[in-house]
Amino acid sequence: MTWTESGTTRTVTADDGVRLWASRSGRGTPLVLCHGGPGLWDMFEDVAGLLGGLATVVRWDQRGCGRSERCAGPWTSERFVADLDAVRAHFGLERTALLGHSWGAQLALSYALAHPERVSALVYVAGTGIGPDADWHGAYEENLLARLGEQPERFARWLELTDRPQRTAEEERQRAVLQWTAEFEDRERAPELAERMADPWFGVNAECNKALNAERKRTWGTPELYTACQALDLPVLIVDGERDIRPRSAVDSLERALPRARRVILPDAGHLPWAEDPQGFREAVATVL
């Protein structure tokens, strides 16, 4: 266990022996955060600071990503749900609130469906709902290109890097930062905020990303998933940035299915709403903590 100024950093061992990085800080209601991706790492340092007075916040890097042990998978939602349960158990949490962002929102929802008795509340941030990819992915790609196209020189560089069959680690980072600028409504601050996402930089686990995205395309959008969400008897807070380039209408499917859902839309925020409206985000999350 390593002590840091913000709390404790620990190694959590999953049931198959893979080591996961985790960190705990703050005090109050337990809250486990699930980062986006797939294939990225925890970028919730600001969120932990924002919510530290409301909750005991647990952050972790998902298997094969960030500061967690590099491994060969398996890259399945079932495996990641089991890893999340290992994190919960490691910190001695009988029940915990979950906050998931983007892909992490899907993971947190999957965990709540599998283990509702271990979840006190779910905060679903900037997810894409429970429908098929056709509900949002085409519009997302159009919006991404339109946002990037607002800065022709940066757009040209992004296209150049995207078209390269092989990239160095620094080129991978540069391409990601350029793409992440599209995630923010505040176009002046977007480069700064995107750089913050990449500091520190651990590299994207492309294999993990490809496998879990393919799994979602096969298994999401089914009547069985909708029925399972209808039976989820937990308080769920859905938080969206209205200016997210993923159409927020995709989340309507989840809101309709859940029996105890409340939705907050932050009008001046994009895909990372805490970065552009921290007060609104904190006030929203506080209602379920």
UniProtKB/TrEMBL annotation:
Keywords: Hydrolase. It comes from the Bacteria. InterPro entries: AB_hydrolase_1 (IPR000073), AB_hydrolase_fold (IPR029058), AB_hydrolase_sf (IPR050266), Peptidase_S33 (IPR002410). GO terms for cellular component: membrane. The keyword Hydrolase applies. Belongs to the peptidase S33 family. It comes from Streptomyces acidicola. Coiled coil: none annotated. One of its GO terms (biological process) is proteolysis. Pfam families: Abhydrolase_1. This is Alpha/beta hydrolase. The lineage of its organism: Bacteria, Bacillati, Actinomycetota, Actinomycetes, Kitasatosporales. GO terms for molecular function: aminopeptidase activity. Residues 30-274 form the AB hydrolase-1 domain. Gene3D superfamilies: alpha/beta hydrolase (3.40.50.1820).
